[in-house]
Amino acid sequence: MRWSSVAIALASAKSFAVALDPVSTSGNKFFNKDGSQFFIKGVAYQLRPLDPLIDTDQCKRDAKLMAELGANTIRVYHVDPSGDHDGCMKAFDDAGIYVLADLDTFDTYIIPENNYWNKTKFDRYAEVMDAFQQYDNILGFFVGNENIATKDDSPTAPYLKAAARDMKAYRDAQGYREIPIGYSAADILQLRPMLQDYLTCGGNSSETVDFFSLNSYSWCDPSTYTESTYDQLEAYAKNFPVPIFLSETGCIVPGPRAWDDQDAIFGPQMVNDWSGAIIYEWIQEENSYGIITYAPAGQPAGPDVEGGFLRKGTPTPKEPDFSALKSKWATNTPEGVHKSNYNPSRVSTRACPTSTAGGWWQVNGDVQLPTLGQILAVNTKTRSANVATETETVGPTATDGSVETTADSTASITAPPSSVTPGSSSSTTSGPASASTTSGGSMDKRITAFGAGVVGAVLAIAILL
């Protein structure tokens, strides 16, 4: 932006003049301080595995171009709570950009193969919250990303809900502002409706997520609202009790991306129930989902190179993707509803889902959530396992013992409002699979694509220990 002489004279007051106010939630909306509704136009941003928010100069370069793109939010998957984030957080704040950050770290995932929520994980989550709660442009925190992704994963859900409960309690006990805490889910038809209802059911707001988000790659240009099954996403989001948005989107098959899904998300078909979308992703790397580059692919090994891609420098738009998204966001400018005219009681808290024998959802109703270190027994006709092993490694066990949840073989789940069957395009995403690992054996939660197939292809999501 070209500055006037007056603006230059007032440069010392710039940070005060443009500082972002915190965003809050009410019902299923995000609201700015002035009462206007806030819609997410975001980009996934993880230049380096451990923390993309410690290089102030790089953040300034990227934030400037993101503002030109029309972005108002970034999502980061890993941060180091011991790092100095002041420079980067101010750079994004000055550019009008909020930050959504994951609380978990490389060694604190809540994963189906090792289900537990203990003090070690709690403390690490708290460290991240402690480090970032001070920034007004922190939009929210995630307690997990695609932790539940296969047929036998749903018993992990109570641990995710317990994590949200305990981190909200910690936030409030510390006197921090009510920064929203939510979850980012894989878009899997057989799990998504039950999971989003489960994380928000029960009637006790202290035990539910503050927002729910979805990683969906089902809209692959050229497509339509119905062909992409976005109509099904909207059907399940109708009057949802908390804000819901797409935490990843941007299918690259067959390409180029026209971003026509943004018209649906910010248009009359979805705007009353959805709060925006985050594009995957900022930097071009092995998976080819990026919208900018720092240098051509195939760079020689060096301190700022990973996988042959430079991770630092002047960002250059990758065309036509960048310009197409910029044009879309320039025309997608919904006003939404003003907070003074909004009645949050109109949204609906759904009934807690019940399990079905042999089905994908194995958590029966509003079961008691685990306390720190407590292990839930899981008994169904198709799965019978006490998940507790090596209890000395998972923290203190509750005095009342483990809680057993038994599936009701006669229970049923309301069928989704579509004719899509398991294995169809709505049951999995067509985007990148979560499959990279760190040297310590924990999954790198950045969604690095080891393959992005056409819609309908079943992607393997590997969680390697």
Automatic annotation (TrEMBL):
Record has Glycoprotein as a keyword: yes
This protein's record includes keyword Cytoplasm: no
Gene Ontology CC terms, in alphabetical order: plasma membrane; side of membrane
Residue ranges with Low complexity bias: 414-442
Coiled-coil intervals: none
Keyword annotations of the record: Glycoprotein, GPI-anchor, Hydrolase, Lipoprotein, Membrane, Signal, Transferase, Transmembrane, Transmembrane helix
Gene3D superfamilies assigned: Glycosidases (3.20.20.80)
Region (Disordered): 384-442
Biased composition range(s): Polar residues: 384-413
Compartment list: Cell membrane
Xref: Pfam families: Glyco_hydro_72 (PF03198)
EC number assigned by the record: 2.4.1.-
Signal peptide annotation: 1-19
Membrane topology: Lipid-anchor; GPI-anchor
Membrane spanning stretches: 447-464
GO MF annotation list: 1,3-beta-glucanosyltransferase activity; hydrolase activity
Major localisation: membrane
BP-aspect Gene Ontology terms: fungal-type cell wall (1->3)-beta-D-glucan biosynthetic process; fungal-type cell wall organization
SUPFAM superfamilies reported for this sequence: (Trans)glycosidases
Role summary: Splits internally a 1,3-beta-glucan molecule and transfers the newly generated reducing end (the donor) to the non-reducing end of another 1,3-beta-glucan molecule (the acceptor) forming a 1,3-beta linkage, resulting in the elongation of 1,3-beta-glucan chains in the cell wall.
PANTHER family the UniProt entry points to: 1,3-BETA-GLUCANOSYLTRANSFERASE GAS1, 1,3-BETA-GLUCANOSYLTRANSFERASE GAS2
Family assignment from sequence similarity: Belongs to the glycosyl hydrolase 72 family.
Identification of the protein by name: 1,3-beta-glucanosyltransferase
Organism: Hypocrea virens (strain Gv29-8 / FGSC 10586)
